[in-house]
Amino acid sequence: MEEVTQINGTGISEAEIGAYWLEEDYIYPSEEFVRKAYIQNQPFLNKFKEENFPECFHEYANLLSWDRYWTTTLDSSNPPFWRWFVGGKLNACYNCVDRHLDKYKNKAAIIWVSESVDEPDRILTYQELYVKVNEFASLLLEMGLKAGDTVTFHLPMVPELPISMLACARLGIIHSEVFGGFSGQACGERIADSKSKILITIDGYYRSGKFIDHKANADIAVATAEKLGQKVEKVLIWTRHPGTYSSKTPLVEGRDLLLDDLMKKHRGKRVDYVPMPSESILFLMYTSGSTGKPKGCAHSTGGYLSYVAGTSKFIHDIHPEDVHWCMADIGWITGHSYIVYGPLANAATSVMYEGVPLYPNVNRVWRIAERLGVSILHTAPTAIRMLMRAGSNPTQYKCDFRLLVTVGEPIEPEVWRWYYKVVGKKGAVVLDTWWQTETGGWLCTTIPSVMPMKPGSAGPGALGIYPVIYDELGNEVLPGSGKAGNLCIKNPWPGRMLTIWGDPERLVKQYYEKYCKNRDSKDWRDWPYFSGDAATMAKDGYIRVLGRVDDVINVAGHRLGTKEIESAALTCEEVAEAAVVPKSDELRGHVPDLYVSLKSGYETDNKHLEDKIKQAISSIIGPIARPANVYVVSDMPKTRSGKIMRRILAAISNNREDYGDITTLVNPDVVEEIRNIVRGE
Ligand code: WT7
Prior knowledge:
Layout: H1 14-17, H2 31-36, H3 42-46, H4 58-61, E1 72-75, E2 83-86, E3 89-90, H5 92-96, H6 101-104, E4 108-113, E5 122-125, H7 126-142, E6 150-153, H8 160-171, E7 174-177, H9 184-194, E8 198-202, E9 204-207, E10 210-213, H10 215-227, E11 234-238, E12 256-258, H11 259-263, E13 276-277, E14 281-287, E15 295-300, H12 302-315, E16 323-326, H13 333-345, E17 349-353, H14 364-372, E18 376-379, H15 381-389, E19 403-407, H16 413-423, E20 429-433, E21 467-470, E22 485-489, E23 499-500, H17 504-511, E24 529-537, E25 543-548, E26 552-555, E27 558-561, H18 562-570, E28 575-585, E29 589-598, H19 607-620, E30 629-633, H20 646-653, H21 669-678
Helix pairs in contact: 7-8, 9-10, 12-13, 15-16, 20-21
The protein binds 5'-O-[(S)-butoxy(hydroxy)phosphoryl]adenosine.
The site of 5'-O-[(S)-butoxy(hydroxy)phosphoryl]adenosine has 23 residues, from helix 13, strand 20, strand 24 and strand 25.
GO biological process, one term: acetyl-CoA biosynthetic process from acetate
InterPro entries: Ac_CoA_lig, ACAS_N, AMP-bd_C, AMP-bd_C_sf, AMP-binding_CS, AMP-dep_synth/lig_dom, ANL_N_sf
Family: Belongs to the ATP-dependent AMP-binding enzyme family.
C-alpha cells in the first residue's frame, strides 16, 4: 500500500481516497484483444524512447496527409511556445473527410442517435459528410469568412456540430464551440474573448425528454458580448427538426438567419480546402482555471491533429471496422478529440448520442450499443457510477465491447471492476486516460495490448510522454515512494495547446513558471509542464491522479473554476463574500458547496436567498455549476491577512475534523458556528 502524505489545498483528503490506495492488482488484456491490436510488440514502443524524441512523433504525423511536408519537427527556440512540424501544411477537414472517400465513401462516418427512442438515427456516410461540409463551407465563404477568423458555436449534440466544425476547418476558420449546457451569458463572454462576429446556434434540443429552447440563449449571448464590446453581426440558426423552427423565441430581423433557408442556395456546392500551416490555430476550447476568467486554449492544426490521430490509432486502437461511441459532449475537449478529430482522421465510425445516459430508462446505453454494434465505449466515471447504482444491466444485452475508456476523473477500483467485469465481460480492456483540455489528447494511459491494467490507475505516460512528480520545491518525488506531489510532464508533445488566446503570458505563468529551471534556457528539458493535478507514481511508473491542486473543481468530469462560481454568487446584492469548496459526492465525484456571508442589513436566515443564489449561478454559468448547498454564515474563517481558509470549509463540508491549526485565524470561533450550520444543529 502506498501512503499519501500530502494531497492539496482544495480539500481532497486521505480518508476520501480510502481503498483507492490499496489497489495494486495487475489485470492482463485478453488474447483476443491482443491479437487484433495495432501495437503488437516492444520494438514499436522503443521508437518512443526518450532518446528518439522528438522524431518519435513522426509516427503520429505520418498518419496524416500533408500538402507540404514539414522541415522542422520541433522548433523550441521560444520556450514554452513549442511549434511542431514547422514548414508543413495540411488541412484538418481534408484529413478527416476527403481523403477517406476513395476507400470508405459508403461507410458511416457519424451515426447520430436521438434522445427520443421514436426518432430514427441520422447516419452520415463519409460521402454525405463530405457533401454537407462542403455546402456549409460554401455558405461560410458567402458570409465573408476567411482563414484566421473566429466563429463561436453554441451547439448541443447534433450532427450539425461536427459538420460546422469541419466546414470551418476546411477554410482555416477557427471554431470555438461553447458547451451547449452553458448559459447564454457564459457563451457571450466567450464570444467577446474570441472576437467572433458570427454565432452559430440551434433553435432547441432535447434533454431528459424536454425540448430546451436554446435560441433564447443566443439573444443573451449576443447582448452579453455587446456589453463587452464585441458586436455579433449574424446569428446562424440550425433547426433541430430540419425545415421547422421550433423555438418560441422570435428571430431578430437582419441578425438571425435560419440555415434551412440559407442552405438551399448552396446545395451541391463544393469548396476547395485551404492548406494551413501546421502551427495555425484549428480551434479554441475555453476552460476554467484559477482566475475568474475562462481561458481559450488554442489548439494547432498539425500538432493537435497528429496527436489525436496517433493516440486514436495506436492507443485507442480504433480500426476502420470499429464502431466507436464516446458519450462525452462535443462541447468539451473529449468530444473534439475523441468523437470528431481523432476517430474521423482514422476513418472510423463515430457515434453521437443527443441525450443523457439514463433516459428514458437505465438500459438505454446498452440498447444503443447492442443495436449499433458498438465495439469501443468511451465515457466518464460519473456515468459509469450512475449506471451501476441505478441498476442498469448490460449483461441482458448482446453487447460486445473490445475496449472501454474512462476519462475525466479518478475512477474508484470498485467502479472500475464493474466496468471491466459487467460491461466488458472481462474480455474488453479498460483504458483509464488522464489528460486535460490544454493537452489536446491523452497523456497517461496504458498501451492496452502490451501493458497490464491496474484498477484506479491511469497508467504510465502515453507514447513519447514522460511524466514526473515534483514536490513544492521542485524535487522529484521518486516512483514508489508513496508520496503525492504535483504531476508534471518533462517533455513537449504535439497536442499541447499553442497558446492561450489573447493572453500568451498566462501559458507561461500557469503551466511553466512553477518548475522552470532556467527562464533563459532554450532547452525544453528546463521547461516541464505543470498540470495542476496531484498524483502519486508507483514503482512501475503508473500514475494515480488524486485531483486538482488549484481552484478548480471537477464535477461529474466537468471542470469548473471556484472563482467563476464565487463571482456569480457575488452578483446577488446581498452577498458580501463567497467561497466555493468541493464536497465529495457518491455519483458525481465532487459537487460545489458554497459559503456566503452577507452585507450588513441583510437577514441570514433566508431560504429564499439560497434559491436566488443558486439560480443566479445557473443562469450566469449553467446548471452544472449549481451548488449542492448554499450556507449563509456570519463570517468566513480568515487568516490575519484576510485570506479565506477554504481548507477549513472543505473539511466541514466533507464532515471531517482535520481543520489543521485554527488558532491563527482572526475569528476561530466561527469554525464551530459554521460546523453547526452545516450539520443542521
Ligand atoms: C482534469 C482536466 C481531459 C478530458 C476530460 C476533462 C481530471 C482527467 C482523469 C483521469 C483522474 C482525471 C484532472 C485533470 N482528469 N482525466 N483519467 N483520472 N482525473 O478535461 O475539463 O480539462 O479537466 O480532469 O483533474 O486536470 P478537463
